[in-house]
Every structure is written in structure tokens, then in C-alpha cells.
Amino acid sequence: MGCGTSVTTDNKRRRLTTAMKAAILIQRWYRRYIARLEMRQRYTWNIFQSIEYAGEQDQLQLSSFFSFMLDNFTQLNGNGPDLISHLLDPVVDPWSDRERQNMYEQITVPESYSGPHLTFPLTVSHTNALLSAFKEQQPLHGRYMLQLLHQTKKLLKQMPNVIHLSTPYAKEITICGDLHGRLDDLLLIFYKNGLPSAETPYVFNGDFVDRGKKSVEVIILLFAYQLLYPDHMTLNRGNHEDHLMNLRYGFTKEVMQKYKTHGRDILLLVQDVFSLLPIATVIDNKVLIVHGGISDMTDLDFLSSIERHKVLYCRSCTVGPVPFLDSFTALPVRQPPREELEWKQVVDLLWSDPKSQPGCSPNTFRGGGSYFGPDVTRRLLERHGMTLLIRSHECKQEGYELCHDGQVITIFSASNYYEEGSNRGAYIKLGRELVPRFFQYQVSRNTRKLTLTQRVNVAEGSAVRAVQEKLFSHRSELMAAFQQYDTSNSGCISVSEWALVVESVVRLDLPWRTLRPRLARLAPDGSIDYQSCFEDMGPGQPIPQVTPNLAETLYRYRTDLEIIFNIMDKDHSGQISIEEFRQTWHLFSAHLGVEVDDRAIDELAKSIDFNKDGSIDFNEFLEAFRVVHKLDVKDQQQGYPGNDLALAQ
Q1: What pLDDT, in 10s, does the model give residues 395-438?
Q2: Domain EF-hand: where (predicted)?
């Protein structure tokens, strides 16, 4: 009996020991699995953020080019100021407020229109009708859109640059960050937190538009609630409440698609409204809310005194070369000292980012604004008797982030910003004690159906393909740099040499060694077959192929060229006239010091007007650069000096 009991006990112990070992092995495997997923999530996040900021840097360089044109050219063949104003000034508006009112009053709403009807002043029933209509994908008629913008402009004109709010007893103020045209996120906030009202006041901290597909609906709701509750609905300006940003990131195109008849008038009025948005909000004299951040120059008293609608902040960015105009050498934009200081401080409020190191330095990652350290935050808060800075401007995986010893909070309200499942959105509630409470959410259409691994795979695949496109668009430069290291012409270089070249050419601060397996193949000896960078390494749609030099350059800077085209296309018809084309080439040629007479420009315009309809669409516009490139190559082959208007090196 005793021996049997002993054997049974030993067997149980062995089984228990085996089970524990198995559990430990499973636990170790799971931890490694989660760690690998976390690593993939982190570098995917770095990819998305680096590419986003690189695009913003390109945008600021383009803005600087336009600023140079506005500030340094006074005459171009006797038509300088009018031409430049016509082409480049984003807020040229010949209509007075009274004329605008007469214009929208003359617009007839057809009986077939089934969307919401607005009368002013607005009531709760109007905002409820807007909510219901947008949930059902019903648009707001152009007449009401213009009328809403006109009323919003009148209200904003009466507001100061810095809004001061207070938290009455037992009331909380809700602060939301970037929405970027995500209507679903806005509706989810309203569902979870309550609709705007005297009992539920809100501060929306800029970047209402661009990137998302429902920017129009987002601003309609925000402006409508601001008109309904002007003391309880505050809208700060963000860096995307700007004409040139809207051209690049989609809001302009969205307006023209949704309002084909009245789109141009709506866009002009929207820019007026954006320019009048307040630039900061202060709660109980203790909490400062700005879109981007601050710098060591930020002076709230000074900012309270400027005429904010006259500060076109894109003109104050650091002037540098515009990449697709190789011979462009920028000169400093000379402005009166006060105007220059106003521009610099507004740029800092809208574009800056916090950093962990002390001090203040130019924000080279974005190309505008400043990096500000904890010491800069502490000094500004102490100077104004404040305790907290709330800002937005940066997507965070959890929807919010604290830094600078808790004195700076970043809040971001657009969930799934980079890709489905990439991040949560969040908002803050501040009560009388001014202790922030965070509320997170994620709009879930397909996310809940995916496992964690599937979500990571989707986001990572999208990010890697974006990097592959970057490599394709820099193919010529990369090949030339690779070949400098490949002295034996083997087609292979070391991993460290490959990573060094890619970083120096593409200029994205990414973990290239970690990404290497997704971007390039190894040779049998462990070196990298660098030509494999330009092959489609993964499943999905093939990466677009581009040929070296001009076509590659056009592909890389297609967005910049499209923005220039859209600025010339003042009526947003998708076409520019021969006269507009001629004037634009005069602008470029005068700046670059190249003599081009009208006859040559007319011949160029006729040669690319393929359908001979007297106007040029965007593809024909790109062809102009190809034609110039061909002429440039021909001149070089014949020994003539190259045409400085050519885009390719």
C-alpha cells in the first residue's frame, strides 16, 4: 500500500513539474511574441510619423518659395504685382461681406433637396438635423454652407486672439485634439461625452480638416455648435487651417468634389474663417491650450495684440531651397521687425513640438516652429502664473501623452490616424480642480474583427510600402551612392553601408537595419543586393515604376507641382488657360534669371495642349516640364548652356 501511494505521488509530481515547465515555456514564448509585435508596432509608427513630417517639411519649403515670390518681385514685364497676387495670394477676395450675403441669398434651393434647411440664428433642432443628415450621408446645400460660413466669420471677428474660459462649480470643460476630417470620431465623442451645450462646454484644438474624407461635415458641425453656443464652444486654429496645407492634404479637393457649383466661393470664405480663428485658449488663468506648442520667444501679451487675420504664418517659415527647382537660391524674406516677430510667434504656436532635452531649437523634423524643452515650458508657465500646457499636433498611440514632468499634455482625437488600428483617440475633461481626466476610444468598423497580429500586419504592410515608394522616387540618387561603395561592381555592399546610404539620401530617421528584410535581399555572403531595393518585395499592388532623372523627379515632386497647378487654377476647374500658363512661366523664368519670350512660351503651351481646346490639364502641365527637359538635354548635347528651367539634374 505504501509503495503504491509513493508511486502515485511521484507521478503527480512529475506531471505537475512537466505542466509547470510547459507553462513557463508558453509564457516565455508569449512574451517573446508580444515583444516582437511591440517592436514591429514601434518601427511602423516611426515610419508613418517620419513620412508625415517629411511631407510637412516639403510643404513649408513650398510655402517659403511662394513667400519669396510675394516679397521680392515687384515687377514682371509690367504685370508683376497683379500677376503674383492673382497666382499666389490665398486670401484674395473681391467680395465684401454684404456682397457675399446677397450672393448666397440669390441661390435657390431646389424642391428636390432633402437635406437639412438652416435659418439663423441657429437652434438645437438645426444642429440635430445636421447630425442626422450626416449620419445618413446627406450633404448640406451650398447656400446653407455659405450662409453658415458667413455667420461664423461675423462671430469670429468679435473674438480676441486668446480666449479666456472658466470652470464654474461642478462643471467640466472637454478638450479635444486633431480630428483631421474624421467625422466618426467627432460623433463618437459627442455620443460618449454629450453634445455641446452650456452644461457640456468644449475646446477643439485645431486641425479640423485634411487627410480625412469628411472634413466638410466636421467643420459644419463645429461652426454650427459655435454659433449655437458661442460662450461654450471654442475652436483654436491649427497648422492645417491654411490654404496651402489644404491644397496638399485634401480639403480643397474635397470641397470642390462636394460643391461643384459653389466650391470656389466656399473655399474663399473658409480661408477667411480659418484666418480669424483664435490662436490660444486659457482656462481659469492656469491652463494654456495651443495647437502646437511654444518657444523661448512666446509672449502671450504680445500675441493678444496682433491682427491675427493678417498673419499668414506660412510666409514666416524658414526660407530654403525648393527641391524640384534645382537652381533656386532663396534670399531672406525681409519684413518689418514687428510683422516678422508676429509671424514667428504664430508659427511657434501652431508648429512646435516638445522635446525632453532642455533649451529651444528650430524644429528641423517638421521644417517649421521650434523644439521646446522642459525649462522653456517651466519659464513660460511661471511667467504667466500657469500650471499646465495642453497641446495637440502629434498623433499618439494611446491618444494622449504627458511630458515635461506632467506640465505638458498632448491630446489627439483622430483614432486609426495612420492605418486601421494604428492608434486610439482621446479627449480630456478638466474640472474646477484642473486635474485632467483622460477618456480613450477607437472607432471600430473592422478593427474588432482583426487579431492583434492581423492589425500589426496591416499597419506594417502599409508603412513598408510607403518606404518602398520613397526608395523608388530616389532611385537615381541611391544607385549612384550605392555604386560609390561598390568598387568591385559586384552589385552588393555591406549592410552598414546600405543603411548609411539610404539614410543620407532618403533622410527619414528610421531603423533601416530592422527594416532591411522587408526592403532588400541578402546575397549568399551576407552583403546586400542593393538593386533589390527597387523590386516589389511583398504582396499587394506593385510599386509604381519610374525612370531615372526627369520622370523620377516629377514622380517625387508631383504633389508640389499639383499644388502649383491648383494655385493657377483659381476656379478649380481642373484646367488652366494658355494665358495663365504663360504668366506662370514668366514668373519662374524671371525668378531664375532665364530669358524666355512670349513666342517661345506660346509654342510650348501649344505643344502640350494635346486636345487643342485652349486650356491645359494637370497631365499636360507635367508634360511642360518633360518638354523643357528634352530641350535642355538637346542643348547640352550641342554644347549650349543648359536651360535653368529644367527640373532634372
Answers
A1: 998 999 999 999 999 999 999 988 887 889 999 999 999 999 99
A2: 473-508, 556-591, 596-631
The reported pLDDT for the residue numbered 530 is 87
Average of pLDDT values for 364-371? 83
What is the Cα–Cα distance from 313 to 220, expressed in whole angstroms?
24
In this structure, of 128-137, 142-151, 173-182, 243-252, the range with the lowest mean pLDDT score is: 243-252
SS3 316: helix
Alpha-carbon span 205 to 234, nearest angstrom = 8
450-542 topology per CATH: Recoverin; domain 1 (1.10.238)
* HEC string for 469-518: HHHHHCHHHHHHHHHHHCCCCCCEECHHHHHHHHHHHHCCCCCHHHHHHH
Q: What is the mean pLDDT of residues 640-645?
A: 36
Dihedral sign, Cα of residue 443, residue 448, residue 452, residue 453: negative
Residue whose C-alpha is closest to residue 212's, from 415, 59, 394, 44: 415
- Give the rounded percent of residues in the chain with a pLDDT score beyond 70: 71
Question: How high is the pLDDT of residue 463?
Answer: 76
CA–CA separation, 485 vs 502, rounded Å? 12
Looking at the domain that runs over 88-447, which CATH code has it been given? 3.60.21.10
Q: Where are the domains of the chain?
A: 88-447, 450-542, 551-637
The catalytic site residues sit at 240
- Tell me, yes or no, if the two domains 88-447 and 551-637 fold the same way: no
Structure confidence at residue 231 (pLDDT): 94
What does the DSSP assignment read for 107-170?
A: PPPPTT--S----SS--HHHHHHHHHHHHTTPPPPHHHHHHHHHHHHHHHHTS-SEEEE---TT
Q: Which CATH number fits domain 551-637: 3.20.20.70, 1.10.238.10, 3.30.559.10, 1.20.1090.10?
A: 1.10.238.10
Q: Which pLDDT score, from 0 to 100, does residue 82 have?
A: 44
pLDDT of residue 142: 94
